[in-house]
Amino acid sequence: MEDVTLGLAVLLAAGMLAAKAGQLLKLPSVTGYILAGLLLGPSGFGIVTMESVGNKLHHFTQIALMLIAFGIGEQIEVKRLRQSARSIGAIGVAEATGALLFVAFASFFAARLCGLQAAVWGMADYLVMALLLGAVSVATAPATTLHVMRELKAKGPLTSTLMAVVAIDNGLAIIFFGLAMSFAGQIAVGGSGSVAGAILSSMMEISFSLSAGLITGLVISFVLHHLKRHDEMLTAGLALLLLCGEGCRAFHLSPLLAGMAAGFTVINRVTRDVRLFRALNAFEPPIYVLFFTLAGCHLDLASLGNAGWVGLVYYLFRIIGKYCGAFTGAFFTRAPIAVRNYLGLALMPQAGVAIGLIFLISSDENLAVFSAIITPVVLAGVVLSELSGPVCARLAIARAGESCEIVDKEVQPVGRAGKKRDHNGNKQHEVFSLVPWTWEKLVPHPIPDGVVAFGAKQSAKVVGLARMATILAHHYNAVPMSVRVVQPYSREYILQGAMDFLFSGEREEVEKLGYDLHTELVPDKDIASGLVAAVEYNDARAVVLGYPIEGTFQSFQEILEKVAKNVACPVVLVRFYGELHTERILVPVRSLDELNDVGPIVHALSRVGDHQLTILYLLPADEPDERVEFKKQQLADWVKRLKITAQITFQIDKTEARQETILKESEKHDLVVMGTSKKNVLKKLFFGSLVETVSRRIRKPLLIVYRPANETLLADRQLR
Fold it and tell me: Fewer C-beta within 10 Å: the chain N or C terminus?
């Protein structure tokens, strides 16, 4: 594949699809991205190679590294970490030292036992190789760790310690590597190079890198203070970060350390301006997908075979060293138990920094002879770490109880989403709970006018429908009526006792509210036709139906559409979820027409008990402020016209994403009421349905109001 744009599209699409597939298996998105790259790269189908596309997308890697480093810097807030600073420093040194010692000793003995280069290498050569491998093993992959933490929305002592340790880990890696290179040089060539020189060189690189980041952070803070617009902050901040990164590369400094220092400076200023962090968060996702998918393309499975047993030893003993070192440091500094037990597990990922260090080994003419062994060993460790590391990091956060992940899944109705298993492993249906009626009994109208019909095939939800129908009946001065559609000729075989039992659940609930239940047993082969007949014959003011708990929604959708099309009253669809009560009611609308559609239902709910209504009026994000005030006045007039006396709040939101605004606001309420727009099939196909999209994801009971599809029927009824 030679076309860069096509390669970009393939990498993004494959990475996202693999991440979604991985999420079904509870794998981090990073693992999916890397696996997608592995399949696309030379080790897979060879669609994306470094010679064709990979090298042309190298700049995306540089951008991603600076964004990652800047994001890690945000996590090192002195005020938050002051109490654990001593602990973090000790843990960082301990886990780095642990990795170096364990890998060095293990790889030394593994190479000797495997007879690696036995004909030409002496004891000193094995020692050089072991020291270099130990130094490289110190490095971690901050990008992978940060991405997993963000995906899980992790918060807590382990997360704070982990991000701080990761931030200093690569600084320690540079120091340890410089020392190891010096020792290795002395052993390999009989004393060339000095330890003091290695330490001084490493300290200078770290100091200059941190200074560059500090200056960049100060400049960013100054610039942000003079900018107001979101897009200007993003542009200026990204430009300064990339200039910092490229400047560091030009002077052979560490862009990672500089980026971390920049983020550290911005977050710890007195002003604590986090707007750039949030702006970059919105910009990052496609860059991260490219970064990790490209990282997967770089992985070469052939290195696993070339590394042999030494590669496996490097991988395993790096994990052991990190874990034991982190545990020891945390134990002696009395860190929280979660930090002791799980920090080492979360430090498994290793990638770019380690690869950069082995390139430095190959570029040193005194040590180039060891590169042929060290390179495949480290690459094998990187392959295994990148595949297993994100999973282990996710497991560590989950075991520590610090995952605040909100999995963005479509919420199925209770009974399908809420399936659980008993002690034998058999599936059970979780029935929604109904809050007991504690208000005073309702007083029926002395001369009822029609009925509010409700029908339920499944007894699990009929009690909830009975309550809703009774509340609506009270508003319409009608009576609640339960309708059951049975096969023709079967009605005459149902005994009176069986009839009483058939309607016993809803009758008991209706009587608790102060009403008597009317019942109707309709013989009809078609459920929808039977419901329509009962509604029209009994002059129904509204129809209440329940979202299916079992079976397919498709068959129910056909019934719903047929009923809504052929009745002259509103159809209210109740989607149960969790606990059903109606104290705090949210009514999201986009227009006054939608508000008028749901108006009678909202009014009915407000008349029973003590309620708090929130009318959430959704406007486009670019709507002028004058429009907001105008809409508030319209809503006030609407409430006055309907004579709603309940406590009511007008919330007018200028939103960029209607669905997300509704979902977020619904968490503060007990019940959501929405109306459907009148769209034909073609319009619905192109423009979608907000209420259907929301109903699949919302985690609250939901009432969906269908106005009569046939306006002629409604007009005829009003004339009668």
Answer: C
CB-count exposure of residue 7 (10 Å: 0-12, 13-18, 19+) = buried
Q: Span 379-400, mean pLDDT? A: 82
Three state DSSP letters for 393-459 = HHHHHHHCCCCCCCCCCCCCCCCCCCCEECCCCCEECCCCEECCCCCCCCCCCCCCCCEEEEECCCH
Query: Can you name the residues that pair with 589 across neighbouring β-strands?
Result: 617
Mean pLDDT value of segment 119-131: 79
Which token pair is 191? 């004393």
Q: How many CA atoms lie within 13 A of 23 on its CB side?
A: 16
Question: Is residue 532 a contact partner of residue 566, using CB atoms and an 8 Å limit?
Answer: yes
Token output for 177: 């590597």
List domains and CATH numbers for the chain. Answer: 58-294+302-399 (1.20.1530.20)
CA 629 to CA 701: how far, in whole Å?
31
pTM for the full model? 0.54
pLDDT tens-digit profile of 241-273?
A: 999 989 988 887 878 778 888 988 888 876 677
Cα–Cα dist 54/1, whole Å: 10
Q: Give the confidence band of 424 by pLDDT, cuts at 50, 70, 90.
A: very low
Question: Position of tokens 């010096």?
Answer: 182
Long-range contact set of residues 647-652: C-beta below 8 Å, sequence gap at least 24: 647/611, 647/612, 647/613, 648/606, 648/612, 648/613, 648/614, 648/615, 649/612, 649/613, 649/614, 649/615, 650/615, 650/617, 651/614, 651/615, 651/616, 651/617, 652/617, 652/619, 652/628
Given a contact cutoff of 8 angstroms between Cβ atoms, the answer to whether 361 and 377 are in contact is: no
Q: What is the largest CA-CA distance in the chain?
A: 109
pLDDT of residue 81: 63
Interstrand relation of 420-421 and 647-655 (parallel, antiparallel or unpaired): unpaired
pLDDT tens across 33-43, in order?
Answer: 878 888 888 77
Give the mean pLDDT of the chain.
78
**Structure-derived torsion over alpha carbons of residues 57, 59, 61, 64, reported in degrees to the nearest 10:** -130
574 near 483, Cβ under 8 Å? Answer: no
Instruction: Collapse the DSSP code of 321 into the 3-class scheme (helix H, G, I; strand E, B; otherwise coil) and give the result.
Output: helix
Based on its alpha-carbon atoms, the radius of gyration of the chain, rounded to whole angstroms, reads 33
Q: Which helix (H) or strand (E) holds 178?
A: helix 157-189
Structure tokens at 237: 């901040």
Q: Which residues make beta-bridge pairs with 612?
A: 584, 647
Contacts of 59 (CB under 8 A, 6+ apart): none
Q: Are strands 612-620 and 647-655 parallel, antiparallel or unpaired?
A: parallel
